[in-house]
Specification:
The chain is mainly beta. Helix content is 3%, strand content 43%. It is built from 1 helix and 10 strands. The model has no long low-confidence stretch (mean pLDDT 94). Bound molecules: zinc ion (ZN).
Length: 120
């Protein structure tokens, strides 16, 4: 895909850093579930194969709730959630990027899609 871009994300303290390849990210999901509304994450989803954790696997703590479908990862040091791991409905591993943590993205410029995660 010619328009694939490379994005760089990190937690606040820098212990967790990643690279993500994706079509240009112009939209993000804002979810009202009990987790997202507290954290304020804005999410964009990519296949796990397009995600490279450059550093920080051992810095990550995992939190799961409800059906335990998603690994809500956060940095043990600074507490920031820069991405989460899960699977698509078809079973493909995916990563949910918190676009607020990505260097190349200004969240204020994105189209925000509101998702009623509370009702899932
Ligand atoms: Zn950190």
């Amino acid at each position: 895909m010619p328009d694939q871009q490379t994005y760089h994300g990190s937690c606040h303290c820098g212990a967790v850093r990643y690279e993500a390849k994706s079509d240009p990210i112009t939209q993000a999901m804002s979810c009202n579930c009990s987790m997202c509304r507290r954290k304020g994450t804005l999410l964009a989803f990519i296949p796990a194969a397009d995600f490279t954790l450059e550093t920080g696997e051992s810095a990550l703590a995992d939190y799961q709730f409800n059906r335990q479908m998603i690994h809500h990862l956060f940095c043990r040091t600074c507490g920031v959630t820069s991405f989460a791991r899960g699977v698509m409905p078809d079973g493909t591993p995916m990563v949910a990027l918190n676009v607020r943590c990505i260097d190349e993205i200004d969240p204020e410029t994105l189209t925000i899609n509101r998702v009623d995660g509370k009702s899932f």
